[in-house]
Amino acid sequence: MDFLTLLRTLGGLGAVLGMLAFALWAVRRFDIRLPGRVAAGGAGRRLQLIERTSLDSRRSVALLRRDGREHLILLSPEGNLVLETSIVRDEVDAAAEEERLRAEAEAMALSKAEMEALRESFSAFVDRTRSGVRDKAVGAVSAAGSMLRIVQAEPESPPPSFNSLVERSRDDAVPVAAQTASPAPAPRPPLSAALLPPLAAAAQRTGAHARAAIVRLRATLAPAAAAVAEAIGRIRQAIEARLAQAKEAKQTRSATSAVAVAAPASPAGVPAKPVAPRTKKKASVQPARTPARRKATASRRG
Q1: Closest C-alpha among 280, 250, 281, 276 to residue 264
Q2: Please, which of 12, 32, 42, 207 could form a disulfide with 27 given CB 3.0 to 4.6 Å?
Q3: Element housing 9 (H / E)
């Protein structure tokens, strides 16, 4: 949360508290009657509504005062009922009132202490933010001033001499074809001697930050790599065990089938009979039945 967002939040909170305070002032100023509000009786009023409490959505209890005496009344749609009349405060009521006032005073003192602590913490936060902004501004201004001094401290280039002008004009007189045939790269301007130490220091800081980041990354990824390697090892062992079990089961089935084919099962003490190979029977060809043959067959049956 930046400073502007905090100021915006505090401004909204102050506006809400201000509206609440204005509403309370309006209620007290114009004597607006609210549900459950204790009426502020004047000096010449004999009847006052001290307090009203709702029991449910339809029933409520009201405490009235008339000339120093209090009356407790139950208000309901079925009718009103006087619960207690001519109530006079005694020592128990005075002790309860004193206890209530003391609790309210303690709560008020606690809220004041909390508000004071909040105000002090906010003041400390504002001071820290202000000092941080001031330090950053001072650092930026000092860096800009140092750069400006470095630029101003660079020596100005001397004006060209007559011999240099002659050499430059001679170079300009070279044919364009010769220049395009062998172009010479323009030399880079040398860096100022005052800029080299800051650049070297910045490069060293960048390298140190990069090495520290690499070390932290290695330390972070080492447990994950070890866990992945362990999981891969367990998976490989499980796959090898499954393959070995499948191979053993296959070998067992092959041996069992070979034994069953070589020596079929027989009762104890009885040698096994050789199994003759099965041959396909040839279907006998029956002559076709003619009408005369069918009649002869029918006569024989009759």
Answers
A1: 276
A2: 32
A3: helix 3-30
Q: What is the pLDDT of residues 128-152, one digit of tens each?
A: 888 888 888 888 877 877 777 776 6
How many other C-beta atoms lie within 10 A of the C-beta of residue 64? Answer: 19
**272 close to 264: Cβ distance less than 8 angstroms:** yes
Helices (H) and strands (E) in the chain, counts: 6, 4
Per DSSP, the three-state class of 157 is coil
Query: In sequence order, what DSSP letters do the residues of 159-217 get, joined into one string?
Result: PP-HHHHHHHHHHHTS-HHHHHHSPPPPPPPPPPTTTHHHHHHHHHHHHHHHHHHHHHH
pLDDT reported for residue 230 = 87
CA distance 141 to 134: 10
| First CA to last CA distance, the chain | 120
Beta strand pairing call for 69-75 and 60-66? antiparallel
Cβ atoms of 53 and 72 within 8 Å: the answer is: no
